[in-house]
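We were asked to recover a plausible sequence for a given structure. The inputs and outputs are reproduced exactly as logged, with field labels preserved.

PROBLEM: sequence recovery
POSITIONS: 584
GIVEN STRUCTURE:
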């Protein structure tokens, strides 16, 4: 019988929708409970509250479609993973392309129809309560549909790549989260034997893990707009249109790739882990490398954490993890335990050599990463530590570059001492270069004394501490140039003589400004703001919480008081802090 040529088969579409009713029915019920039924239960709702709630649910919906898209694709294409059902559907008088497009369209309707019904009912319910939510409801429908298109199409693409029913959800989750997980672990592994590697350095873009990236960057958030003069409500603005459109466009690309793969898919691959032959080596070596990184880190961190030679321990553990991943991958691909052939041993050895070569390159700085020290003339500004301010003073920059060079020159001595020293605090430097790029470095500097009296004053740790306690560095830290002081939000926290914690003392604008002037004077005098082994003053049980505006955001930093900070202590006494707290 000749196959019909069409893009959609009505009978198959109707049957697919009816059999999938429990899935899309539960999805619809959940949406009805969250939106129209919830809004109906409220006594009264205005347009602003309803719009904010709708866009909040929209943000939640962009997360929930991650799982829903997987479930829909899993249901629609599960027939591919059983030889009997795969041959049954291929024997129907319908072209393979028609079956794929019909099922893909059904999967889209699994979300589009419920979302449209929910949006229309929400408009009706809010209109009956006197609120106008037409724009917010349309945003809910469009944004969730575009993001659903992305996740659903990705799941459909993976469904064409794999041949086992359990492989689809596993690979779907792996592809969405492996980037951030492997990057986190790999960065931790590299820092173990790469001198100067700092945390927070991205090895690849975060958008390779789409769900994590959208949550981290709040891509689908909203903003309530108020009139700056009258303070009246103007609108609620959705901020995620560009990301939603990008998600939708990429989703269409995934759908096209899935369609092309469907046309070439071999029915006999049902039951295989990977159904596309040229991707099997990619899967094998990706699994080997991933297991080498993850299992190597787990073995090294939890079984040999106190090992003295961290590099050798990590190297052995990563090679072991790589070998385990390789042989597990071969067993999955061949569906057999009999995989110990000569060719597999050679390929496993090649994978181990690649991992070992990569680790040795990092350890012995083949790329020059650890040896690199920027020229002081190329540096625009620096920041010391995680919470350090941005310093543009040329003298401080030159001192930092000189200390950095000295640390690099003594690399191997520092590593040997750090393995034996009781304490090795990290000295972190962030350079902003004249071309706008950033250079991050972090070095463990061994310390043999824990305070000002016992620390070795000839060591690099002492020099780093002195640099961090320089008044110019401290002023940039506590009085950032790009922050506007929120004087009326500054506060003082302290403990009484008996050790009980008092409620924070909030300051007025004038009190905060007066306190800021006193803090500046004491920092310049070297009596306030420092810490570490080179700081000679003892902190009092008083914390000053300084707040700054950065646009719409507010950040804060804490500052411990010292007895030598005479100007600051005088202002605090005037404000009303008890005299007993000034006694060390």
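RECOVERED SEQUENCE:
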């Amino acid at each position: 019988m000749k196959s019909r040529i069409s893009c959609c088969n009505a009978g198959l579409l109707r049957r697919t929708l009816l059999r999938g009713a429990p899935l899309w029915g539960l999805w619809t019920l959940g949406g009805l409970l969250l939106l129209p039924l919830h809004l109906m239960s409220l006594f009264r709702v205005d347009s602003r509250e309803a719009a904010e709630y709708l866009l909040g649910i929209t943000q939640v919906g962009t997360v929930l479609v991650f799982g829903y898209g997987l479930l829909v694709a899993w249901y629609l294409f599960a027939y591919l993973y059983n030889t009997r059902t795969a041959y049954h559907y291929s024997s129907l008088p319908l072209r393979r392309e028609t079956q794929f497009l019909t099922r893909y369209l059904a999967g889209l309707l699994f979300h589009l129809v419920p979302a449209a019904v929910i949006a229309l009912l929400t408009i009706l319910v809010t209109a009956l309560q006197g609120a106008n939510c037409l724009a917010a409801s349309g945003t809910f429908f469009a944004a969730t549909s575009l993001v659903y298109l992305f996740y659903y199409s990705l799941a459909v693409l993976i469904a064409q790549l794999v041949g086992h029913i359990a492989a689809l959800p596993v690979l779907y989750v792996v592809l969405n989260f492996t980037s951030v997980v492997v990057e986190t672990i790999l960065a931790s592994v590299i820092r173990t034997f790469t001198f100067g590697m700092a945390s927070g350095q991205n090895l690849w873009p975060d958008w390779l893990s789409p769900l994590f990236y959208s949550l981290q960057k709040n891509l689908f958030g909203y903003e309530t707009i108020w009139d700056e003069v009258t303070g009246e409500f103007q609108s609620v603005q959705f901020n995620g249109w560009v990301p939603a459109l990008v998600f939708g466009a990429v989703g269409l690309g995934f759908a096209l790739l899935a369609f092309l793969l469907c046309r070439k898919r071999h029915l006999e691959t049902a039951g295989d882990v990977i159904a596309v032959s040229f991707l099997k080596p990619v899967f094998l070596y990706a699994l080997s490398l991933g297991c080498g990184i993850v299992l190597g880190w787990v073995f090294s961190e939890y079984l040999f954490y106190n090992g003295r030679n961290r590099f050798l321990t990590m190297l052995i553990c990563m090679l072991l993890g790589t070998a385990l991943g390789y042989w597990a991958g071969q067993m999955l691909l061949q569906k057999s335990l009999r995989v110990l052939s000569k060719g597999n041993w050679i390929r496993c050895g090649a994978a181990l050599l690649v991992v070992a070569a990569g680790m040795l390159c990092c350890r012995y700085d083949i790329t020059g990463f650890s040896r690199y020290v920027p020229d002081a003339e190329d540096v625009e500004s620096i920041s010391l530590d995680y919470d350090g301010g941005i310093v543009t003073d040329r003298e401080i920059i030159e001192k930092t570059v000189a200390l950095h060079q000295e640390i690099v020159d003594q690399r191997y001595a520092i590593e040997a001492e750090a393995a034996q020293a009781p304490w090795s605090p990290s000295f972190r430097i962030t350079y902003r270069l004249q071309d706008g790029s950033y250079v991050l470095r972090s070095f463990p500097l061994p310390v043999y004394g824990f305070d000002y009296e016992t620390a070795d004053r000839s060591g690099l740790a002492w020099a780093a501490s002195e640099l961090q306690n320089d008044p110019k560095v401290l002023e940039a830290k506590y009085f950032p140039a790009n922050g506007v002081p929120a004087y009326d939000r500054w506060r003082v926290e302290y403990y009484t003589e008996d050790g009980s914690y008092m409620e924070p003392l909030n300051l007025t604008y004038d009190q905060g400004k007066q306190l800021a002037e006193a803090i500046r004077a004491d920092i310049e005098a070297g009596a306030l703001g420092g810490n570490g082994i080179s700081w000679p003053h003892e902190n009092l049980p008083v914390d000053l919480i300084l707040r700054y505006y950065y646009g719409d955001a507010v950040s804060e930093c804490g500052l411990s008081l010292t007895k030598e900070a005479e100007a600051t202590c005088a202002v605090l006494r005037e404000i009303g802090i008890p005299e007993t707290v000034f006694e060390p």
